[in-house]
Amino acid sequence: MGNREMDVISQLQEQVNTIASIAFNTFGTLQRDAPSVRLSASYPEPPPNDAEDAATFAEQPKLMSSDLVKAAKQVRYLLD
Length: 80
Prior knowledge:
The chain is mainly alpha-helical. It contains 2 helices and no strands.
């Protein structure tokens, strides 16, 4: 393998690591910040959601998905 192939492989590995990190952080953020929901009538009502927190939470997935799409596009570029 030449240097160019190794360089592309290294870049691909870096992008895969980036995607894994974004996914890990996204799942953690969603788990931590998602508003409570009532799962069943046998459970008590969850506490009301703060409107400001809900607005902030609504923006987070958009930002994280943007980062994920950028990383995926970079992988596609490297594969081409």
